[in-house]
Amino acid sequence: xxxxxxxPGIHWLGAIDWDRRLFDALIPIPEGTSYNAYHVQGAAKAxxxxxxxxxxxxxxxxxxxxxxxxxxxxxxxAEPDHSGCLPDVMRACPSAVLxxxxxAQGMLCDLLPDLPADRIRPVADGERIDLGGRTLRFVHxxxxxxxxTMVTFLEEDRGLFSCDLFGSHLxxxxxxxxxxxxxxxxxxxxxxxxxxxxxxxxxxxxxxVRALDPAWIAPSHGxxxxxxxxxxxxYGSWLNDPPLRKAVMVRVSTHGSTAAMAxxxxxxxxxxxxxxxxxxxxxxxxxxxASALVDASALVIAAPAIWDGPHPAALLAMTIAxxxxxxxxxxxxxxxxxxxxxxxxxxxxxxxxLKAQFLPPVTAKGAPRAEAFAAVDAMAASIDDAIxxxxx
Length: 392
Ligand SMILES: Cc1cc2nc3c(=O)[nH]c(=O)nc-3n(C[C@H](O)[C@H](O)[C@H](O)COP(=O)(O)O)c2cc1C
Ligand SMILES: [Fe+2]
Ligand SMILES: [Fe+2]
Fold this sequence. Notes:
6-stranded parallel β-sheet; binds flavin mononucleotide; 392 residues; binds fe (ii) ion; Rossmann fold; elongated
């Protein structure tokens, strides 16, 4: 793929990774992804924003060589899917200066030993650089999703280069996001996996970039947002809306005892008008799971005791939920055990990242009897109470 013109004097370059199916060695990306870089030409100078995943180094260097040599290379983010080609880019462009946040300076050098450290210049929040009729304004946006991240606002064009923020894992030949129905699920997945864990800071950064009133937003994954209202509105909703009357349920059962308890809980929740989105722990689709957690008000883990703890497949789901820090208000756990309930008794300790209310676990020795089912029914009522809008 050759560089593509986004607007006169502004080019997209980078790579569309049609075949990639797993990100961060953990997260399925069924629609692939892209690594977007951008080249901006002013009357006097040129700037390159970010690079591509190093798997596409050769292609990327060819693209850079086909455009006017950049005076500035801007690294919005130190993560190698965007910074990985920078050492070679700096070698190929010997007069370029690399601009990044002060925090990114150290992180880029940590990750990329070949980067020429003496050619890196940190930029301050709000600092401007004039390319000749085109002004770059650097806006520090820490924790979207690493501590060193920033975005660049191209003032005259009112374009925002947002790197991972507002990105979507979506491989498409379309440069501009024309179809929100296709782009937004990919962006939601991206938000869930990458941004949700830092929601408090992302919320502040969302307000900071909203104030810029961008006319278009060019992220580092997925297509460019021609109508930013859709993606800005979606981020506002994912970050700020109260969660839905919906429980995400992760379930696993070796011989059916825990499954019987889980089924009883589903019936109780459904009877109360609470939707249940079930996930099989042993074939956990991490992408769908993370996406479902964005607007769930309850998380239910149904897992038996295995090796002195909840079933390992459930532990993975618990670890992921604790890391993603969704806005669920309540966590409910239940399961069967063979000889000691101890393994199932302290779910809060296994999910320390969650600020939710943890209900007392419901356990059954072997197959559940009337007493266990009554406790499960009470658990459905407690979940209902906990997720009412008036609940604390
Ligand atoms: C590999 C394995 C390890 C187990 N470890 C424990 C344990 O540490 N503590 C315990 O009380 N029960 C343990 N059990 C017993 C199960 O928790 C028990 O059979 C339970 O009823 C299974 O519920 P399920 O049918 O929902 O899977 C273990 C069972 C298996 C197969
Ligand atoms: Fe990233
Ligand atoms: Fe990225």
